[in-house]
Design goal:
203 residues; alpha/beta; Rossmann fold; two-stranded antiparallel ribbon
């Protein structure tokens, strides 16, 4: 628990790059882990990191990244499931955190990319830019294993810990407002079918 216990606040966390962090995450996935990429830039950077069949790229549906990931985690408790959330999206569905904690979804990891703005709609500020600390909120809902990543190395250490130990986990990162590294192919049927085939139970 050393990495999760490291004293880091939103104010002290290094501002990092979403695309870089996503590539660091994907490089650590070797056991068919499912990744739910939230709307907009989160799934754009997930797509640019390599089109794994276990990736699900959300198109629309703001606020539903963590709930969708929770559903996959409950359906397949043997598979680690990652939710790539933005601060604006998570703020729309804060109640999901309490539901995840109450359900005890031990195989679920929520990664929050927080830049304090609604980036793709005009960079309007979110509440995390002023009053809301998403790690404090997560802990308040019962997600004890929640932490800010101090820097890239700490982020990787937290991901490694989440891969090795039961959760649920929430890893929050401060990110910049750089454009994503790519754009997801917008074919909902193909995205759904490929993901379903990839995580289908083996007969």
């Amino acid at each position: 628990m050393a990495n999760i216990d490291k004293a880091v606040t939103r104010a002290s966390a290094r501002v990092m790059n979403r695309s870089d962090l996503t590539r660091r995450l994907v490089a650590r996935l070797e056991q068919g882990e499912a990744v739910i990429g939230g709307i907009g830039n989160n799934n754009f950077d997930l797509w640019a990191s390599g089109q794994r069949p276990e990736n699900f790229y959300m198109l629309g549906s703001m606020g539903l990244t963590a709930p969708i990931a929770m559903g996959v985690a409950l359906a397949q408790p043997q598979r680690r499931v990652f939710a790539l959330e933005g601060d604006g999206s998570l703020l729309m569905q804060l109640g999901a955190l309490g539901t995840i904690a109450a359900a005890g979804t031990a195989n679920l990891v929520i990664i929050v990319y927080d830049n304090g703005i609604y980036q793709i709609t005009g960079k309007q500020p979110t509440l995390t830019s002023s009053t809301v600390d998403l790690v404090a909120v997560a802990k308040g809902t019962g997600l004890a294993q929640s932490a800010w990543a101090a820097d890239e190395a700490h982020f990787e250490a937290l991901v490694d810990e989440a891969l090795a130990k039961p959760g649920p986990w929430l890893i929050a990162t401060r990110i910049d407002d750089q454009k994503p590294a790519g754009t997801t192919e917008r074919d909902p049927a193909r995205i759904r079918q490929r993901f379903m085939a990839a995580i289908a139970p083996q007969k």
